[in-house]
Design brief:
The complex is a heterodimer of chains A (183) and B (212). By secondary structure, chain A is mainly alpha-helical. Helices cover 64% and strands 0% of the residues of chain A. Chain B has one domain.
Chain lengths: 183, 212
């Protein structure tokens, strides 16, 4: 717990200063934890575990888009837990559950069922198809094909700044397409 | 798109942000405050004896209460916009402001003869008070909610309400410069009602627009 706490906090601080490698490592380390949390939540609510990866991806998008709301002087795990809980509750509500999901067993999730096979999610691809063409092309090239910003700029004959903006807007639009529940 | 692809995409989108959330909130307050002050100058203006009253304890008490309410609400709402951040101390500070108001009311009741209580409570201008405070608070609330959308409040209704409390308190501080009623009895009752109304509007706005 404490190890993860310090390590994640350090990685996030480094990311806030522009260290992409640290950021990449942090996100990769969060995935098994978020996956386990999502699965447990779904099981507890009696829902299909196959949706877990959608929730993981939605949470990662929220972590990314809201990372500024983590105060560097405060511990990282409570922030992550609150973000994950918010996204889990959202997902449950969309599936018609209104139960509150406690996430106390947050970090012991790490060790347990992280190695189960991952169901490839459908939602994100669906949302991706609904993006405006420019954003879709940029997000696809960077995320799916692993192109760099510069390569995409050359290929699509755009400036690097414009690629960055389109990519960011595309990601933000993906996050919002998961839908905000108004109950 | 599998999760590894998404992480690659998110990493490529990493940028260094120069402005902290708090500074952003401060910037967002300026336009709302500006509009509120323009409205104040155009519609009411300060009371004629404003400068002469600067030493008056009751007159000053209105500013002490409203401005400290505004400051404590702002500090609390900043925390509410950050997931998992502790809020107890700041909520307690807000409670302290209410205690100060209660103390002011107690002193007023102790020093003013019972026969004057009703007149002090009703005052001369309660309708103007009830209309003006929300009017000045509204532009401040709009910009505060817009700024909060950059945050990630876990409890959108609560965050919206505290933003409303903040806007209402600042609106009340502006109105206090015009208000001819200085008794803490009047302040507790009518200012309180007006601010509570703005807080309720803030709560609704939070519910509608602060989900993330």
């Amino acid at each position: 717990m404490n190890k993860a706490e310090t390590e994640w906090g350090d990685l996030m601080r480094a990311a806030n200063r522009g260290d992409a490698a640290a950021y990449n490592r942090l996100l990769a380390e969060l995935v098994p934890v978020l996956r386990s949390v999502a699965r447990r939540g779904l099981v507890r609510a009696g829902l299909a575990v196959t949706d877990a990866e959608d929730i993981v991806q939605e949470t990662l998008l929220a972590v990314h888009l809201k990372r500024q709301t983590w105060d560097e002087t405060l511990p990282f795990t409570p922030w992550l837990r609150a973000v994950a809980r918010n996204k889990l509750i959202d997902a449950m509500r969309r599936r018609g559950r209104r139960t509150f999901v406690p996430i106390d067993d947050f970090v012991d999730a790490l060790a347990s069922d992280a190695e189960e096979p991952v169901v490839v999610p459908a939602k994100l691809d669906e949302h991706l198809q609904n993006l405006p063409e420019g954003q879709r092309n940029v997000v696809t090239a960077i995320s799916l094909n692993g192109a760099s910003i510069r390569e995409v700029a050359t290929r699509l004959n755009m400036s690097e700044g414009a690629v960055r903006v389109a990519h960011h807007r595309g990601l933000a639009a993906l996050a919002s397409k998961f839908g905000i529940v108004r109950s | 798109m599998n999760t590894d692809d998404l992480i690659r995409g998110l990493t490529a989108d990493l940028t260094v942000s120069r402005t902290s959330l708090e500074r952003l909130f401060c910037y967002a307050l300026l336009p709302g405050l500006f509009v509120a002050l323009i409205l104040f100058a155009a519609i009411l203006g300060p009371r004629p004896d404003f400068v002469a009253m600067m030493g008056d304890a009751r007159f000053m008490f209105k500013f002490v209460v409203t401005l400290s309410l505004g400051a404590c609400s702002a500090l609390l709402v900043w925390r509410l916009a950050r997931p998992g951040a502790p809020t107890q101390m700041r909520a307690a500070a807000l409670g302290l402001v209410v205690l100060v108001l209660v103390a002011g009311v107690a002193v007023e009741l102790a020093t003013v003869p019972r026969s004057l209580w009703a007149a002090r409570l009703v005052g001369q201008n309660s309708v103007v008070c009830l209309l003006s405070i929300p009017l000045f608070a509204l532009p401040i609330l709009v910009f505060a909610i817009l700024a909060l959308r950059r945050g990630a409040p876990e409890r959108p209704v609560l965050a919206g309400s505290v933003a409303g409390l903040f806007a209402g308190a600042i609106g009340a501080a502006i109105y206090a410069a015009h208000c001819p009623d200085d008794s803490p009895l009047f302040v507790a009752c009518w200012y309180g009602l007006a601010i509570a109304g703005v807080a309720a509007v803030g709560g609704i706005a939070g519910r509608l627009s602060l989900r993330w």
